[in-house]
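Example 3.
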Amino acid sequence: MPTSSEPRQITIFDTTLRDGEQSPGCSMNLREKLEVAQALADLNVDVIEAGFPITSLGDFKAVREIANTISGSTICGLARCRNPDIDRAWESLCQGDDVRIHVFLATSAIHREFKLRMGKDEIIHRAVEGVKRAKSYCDNIEFSPEDAARTEADFLCQVVEAAIDAGATTVNIPDTVGYATPNHFAGVISDLINRVPNIDKAVISVHCHNDLGLAVANSLAAIENGAKQIECTINGLGERAGNCSLEEVVMAMQTRSDHYQVTTRINTPRLVPASRLVSSITGMLVQRNKAIVGRNAFAHEAGIHQDGMLKERTTYEIMRPEDVGFTKTDLVLGKHSGRAALADRAKALGFHLTDEQLTKVFEDFKDLADKKKDIYDGDIAALIEHQDTQTVDQWKLVTYEIQSTSGKTPTATLTLSHGDQQCTKTMSCGDGPLDVLFRAIEELTGKTVTVTDFRVQSSTRGKDAQGEAIIEAEYNGRIYRGRGVSTDTVEASTRAFLNVINRIESGTTEGQPGATT
Ligand code: KIV
Ligand code: ZN
């Protein structure tokens, strides 16, 4: 790639709400999707892929609501190259000010033969028809030849040329199964630039999956070879091993701008708040040593490193923690802190609270401050997220009492509310206090699940830290994840279990996916 003095601006296309949401247990309800979309807009993401409208009523409503309310980013909806998909995508986007339709069709020999049972000519025909139909609705059209990285080079060039001729303004080259390596993928992109005659009429985008742990490396190799858009997700969420991680790829380009000679519009101090929000909403924890947003990403343990840091920060730090949104100290508030200080902290953490929400969070904050001396950022985030869950959850925990003695069957009395109704169940069974409480919840709600994972961790530090419980459970072949927070770990676990039940209920009413990629 010839270098010029002006750095190229790379378009950041976020697909957390579409590809990210496709990972098992990561489905979000409408309110959660709106919160994530707002966090993405605060990050200055250029394009937000808000969903795949044909797949469910929930996805349709989310794309429509996001297109109508979120400003500052282009809002995109996904569709297969089929008329009903494209019409539905447009129906959800049509009232938005700045929207894009993204159509896709698989092109690799494996997909043609086994999935689509179509020959090359039919693939080109369908791709062209799909792009044309989308173009009849709006100007901004993206086309993706799914599994492009495993598609024969000549055929990929033909499809891309035909899609651009039909009106595609962005051509996205997916490595759908994470098979590519950096040199190979660089070759795919430069081949397209050298061989597709009308390639200058479209932006080249890349969409890399992380099955071999190479999604970020492959995306960067594509950028070095002329790609101008990267598709990525917060925390690298996505099908199987996930997608290219937004925070990693953005910080790689920013930190090594000397090498890549590119910029993005991303407001990098919003990266940690966005990561935290997505993690708490989906229940997908961020590994401690995850690059950029992991809790240990800027922790220096070795004495030699600490010594070096004290002498000169750059001896061991290539980025400043505050540049990605870690606050210098996260010990923030205590018993005597006021509402304004809380509002300030909540804002810095990336939450948009109404007056009414702030009042409720402030009440909980005061209760927590009575139980716990130091209130950290993690505590505040947990309080706000807990409030959020409470406002939409159908089933709410009213009270419980347990008697548990080692070697004896435990007994629990649990009261839940559902709307105006309250119901109570006393049970004596199970292996321990949590087992009996979970069974009582199942009895009262009429939903029986299989718990597939259960973790409790502290949200902050200290013996009085709040416990955060995450439960993953299977119901009717689908995975749901629930989260609960409290200074009492039994209560946190009970709330997490109840959150799973509430997610099952809201999933049922919002409709299940009817088609996936
Ligand atoms: O991985 C993939 O190929 C996709 C397409 C829909 C872009 O997600
Ligand atoms: Zn994908």
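The longest helix spans residues 489-510. The chain is about 40% helix and 20% strand.
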